[in-house]
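Anyone up for a design puzzle?
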């Protein structure tokens, strides 16, 4: 944040020097004033639903008679998150969204929110002695990524290869058992797949990890052994089916034929 600021300010100075050489000195002075008043750095924080966050003003000058933290959501609605008054030493959270999850340290001005929801996203500002401070605290609360489940798809005409599919919109990282990152291919309509060739080692495995910057989840590993078992399972099921068919259809057929022979014999007589 600090870096970005000073970058911007440097750029600002450069632009002014280039574009308005005549008023250079005056404008540089304004810029310098701007830099000194902006010395407190703003904060941008990303969190996952259920997380906790704390914001603390860089400095507060005593004596402090009241503190109010305000929250502005992306539609511009402003509500009081928490208030403290030195006279009666009462903390209050008038808004339902902040009840039971908001704490304030009246000495440092630090606000702490627990059990964050997406609705806590927005801009937080602090009033000390009814005067709004310069510093801005921006919070983005994002949903946690789900724990992914890998789908297995056989490849037609190639029994030594399968596709492993991770069908999610979040960024995906594939890994094999040596921890190596594998490059996936785009899967339609969403997610990625990798093509896995049997190596003959049943302990080799593959995982898919989802991450959205605030939370990550990794799938259960899919072992080569499971993929082969899958194949064997298919063979076993097929063979059983054939046997079931034989047991179901041969006896009636046998009976039918015996019946047939008997009838033919009697008609011959
Ligand atoms: C902002 O807050 C208002 C009042 O609670 C609410 O009606 C509105 O939907 C909120 N906007 C967002 C984007 O959450
Ligand atoms: C993991 O992938 C890398 C790169 O493709 C490969 O060199 C390595 O042998 C793989 N390890 C296993 C256990 O499959």
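Challenge accepted. My sequence:
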């Amino acid at each position: 944040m600090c870096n970005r600021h000073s970058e911007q300010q440097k750029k600002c100075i450069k632009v002014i020097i280039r574009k308005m050489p005549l008023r250079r000195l005056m404008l540089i002075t304004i810029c310098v004033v701007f830099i000194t008043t902006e010395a407190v750095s703003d904060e941008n924080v990303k969190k996952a639903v259920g997380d906790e966050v704390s914001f603390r003003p860089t400095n507060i000058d005593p004596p402090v008679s009241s503190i109010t933290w305000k929250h502005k959501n992306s539609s511009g609605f402003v509500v009081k998150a928490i208030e403290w008054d030195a006279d009666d030493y009462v903390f209050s959270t008038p808004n339902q969204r902040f009840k039971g999850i908001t704490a304030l340290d009246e000495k440092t001005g630090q606000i702490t929110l627990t059990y964050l929801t997406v609705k806590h996203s927005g801009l937080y500002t602090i009033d000390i002695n009814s005067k709004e401070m310069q510093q801005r605290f921006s919070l983005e609360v994002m949903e946690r990524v789900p724990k992914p489940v890998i789908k297995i798809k056989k490849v037609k005409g190639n029994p030594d290869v399968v596709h492993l599919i991770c069908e999610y919109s979040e960024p995906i990282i594939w890994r094999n058992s040596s921890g190596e990152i594998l490059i996936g291919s785009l899967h339609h309509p969403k997610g990625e797949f990798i093509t896995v060739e049997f190596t003959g080692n049943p302990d080799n495995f593959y995982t898919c990890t989802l991450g959205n910057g605030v939370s990550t989840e990794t799938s259960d590993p899919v072992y080569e052994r499971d993929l082969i078992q899958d194949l064997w399972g298919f063979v076993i099921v097929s063979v059983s089916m054939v046997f079931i068919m034989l047991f179901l259809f041969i006896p009636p057929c046998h009976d039918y034929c015996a019946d047939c022979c008997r009838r033919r014999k009697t008609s011959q007589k």
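A detail worth pointing out: The pocket of 2-acetamido-2-deoxy-beta-D-glucopyranose (ligand 1) is lined by residues 73-75, 77, 119 (CB under 6 Å).
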